[in-house]
Amino acid sequence: MKTGIAHLYIPGPTNVPDAVRQAMNVPMQDMRAHDFGAQWIGLFNDLKGLFRTVDGTVMLFPGSGTAAWEAAITNTLNPGDRVLMARHGQFSTLWVEMAERLGLEVDVVDVDWGQGTPATEFAARLAADRKGQIKAVFVTHNETATGVTSDVAAVRRAMTDTHHDALLFVDAVSSLASVDFRMDDWGVDLAVSGSQKGLMCPAGLGVLGVSVKAMAAAQTATMRRAYFEFKDMVNLNAGGYFPYTPPTQLLHGMRCALDRIKAEGLDNVLARHARLAEGVRRAVAAWGLELVAEHPSLYSNTVSAIRVPADVDAREVIRIAYDRYCLSLGSGLSRLAGKVFRIGHLGDLNEGMALTALSVTEMAMAEAGVNIRFGSGVAAAQHWFSTGRMAGAQVNVAAE
Questions:
Q1: Quick one: which of 72, 85, 98, 202 has the fewest CB in 10 Å?
Q2: pTM (2 decimals)?
Q3: 201-245 pLDDT tens trace
Q4: How far is CA 333 from CA 22, 89, 195, 198, 203, in A?
């Protein structure tokens, strides 16, 4: 029998704060009552703030981020449209597969897992597309499988420099409210996210940001859709209602989560994620291990994918951590299975929680056969966390 709490350090679903869980513990409501909609209008406005968009429209679809992927594609593109995508991890690969299943002609750029979206290669292909046959460009902002964050702004510059009018799709499932995201500044047309990562809620809501340009494209797009119809959603969302039965308890949880983000301040939330992620990365370096991400400019502030030595099976590290110490680590996906484990460090997280993940991971690695000195990674993270706090305190004192 396991005692105590289960420690969750996968990159999603993430820990749901007690306040959010309690906010969802409400009776069912009449979703057509005259006063139902008023309580949800603020959700859409606050989510616009997280996307950093003024003119964009935010929609909430019951479903996961994958549902929002499909809604974005089916409402704005036509069967046979040519799109530009890259495969550099499991989730970018799945996005390509969805596009192909939906009847798009996908121009795929394959790069090593550990790299990001290749903005330079995208620029070359866009420049060569003199007839404007490419109708959309897709970027996986944060590739959860590899712990890589791509430069969306660089892709937008490539589109601007080549005078290309394609729509820009961005997967922000594991970056929204955790990594800086600027929908308007980057000219993002479809921004896809979900409730279960940086938004600190259970899975079940696909979150979609849609630009004015994309809303216009939805007026003429001919791809088949029914449940995911933008027009039905927008017409009722204006009053806080939904075209079908909404997951009301999740909406209450989302309201509480957004209030928590607002209270901390979005910039502070992003800075916290950066600080915690750097602590984990310093621990990995102290262990003598490597990240999948091939360069510091690609490091993700939401998840670190860590390579184990060639003679160790990463699945054993994960199993030992789970079975013996009640701690969940992310597995290596697809071609990285057995070679990598992942530590998710996003959402409702603090330094103590990060240190728990590192200390238990050290025990699990040692038992799985990794040659490691106990406390090495923990000490490196402690030093980073404590000196950062002390430096901040000194600055504050000096300012006073």
A1: 98
A2: 0.94
A3: 999 999 999 999 999 999 999 999 999 999 999 999 999 999 999
A4: 33, 9, 22, 21, 20
